[in-house]
Amino acid sequence: MEPQKKHCFYFLLTLTILPIYASTALGGKRGGGVLAGGWQPIKNITEPHVKEIGQYAVEEYNKESKSQLKFVSVVKGETQVMAGTNYRLMLATKDGALAKNYQAVVWEKVWEHFRNLTSFTRLKA
Ligand SMILES: *[C@@H]1O[C@H](CO)[C@@H](O)[C@H](O)[C@H]1NC(C)=O
Ligand SMILES: *[C@@H]1O[C@H](CO)[C@@H](O)[C@H](O)[C@H]1NC(C)=O
């Protein structure tokens, strides 16, 4: 290869490989989503919409499992863009006097007014 072309080749190689490396590094950190759709921390968990998603998760869980959990707060959360938004929230709840933490995943498509509780699992305190 002529030096000129060689340089060009490496330049192209860098352009191709860098984005793949960068997205893998970002997505792979949590072992979650790859490429598009990595989990991003929610910056402000006191936003009313985040609270609403948390309350929805608890209500939905109560309906499905005939429980009586009371929503207390969203402790932390992450979102993932995926044909809408996935919310993965750590929730504080009360079961009677007992404090219980859960991790809820809610899938929301705002424009379709669609929400679904994908998972709701107890976290050890
Ligand atoms: C977080 O959201 C709440 C409610 O919308 C708002 O009052 C507060 O100022 C926000 N905090 C930050 C740091 O943006
Ligand atoms: C919503 O999630 C439940 C499981 O939590 C599932 O059985 C149901 O099919 C889902 N509904 C839709 C419309 O995706």
TrEMBL record:
CDD domains: CY (cd00042). GO terms for molecular function: cysteine-type endopeptidase inhibitor activity. Residues 1-27 form the signal peptide. It comes from the Eukaryota. The keyword Manganese does not apply. Residues 34-123 form the Cystatin domain. It holds the Pfam family SQAPI. This is Cystatin domain-containing protein.
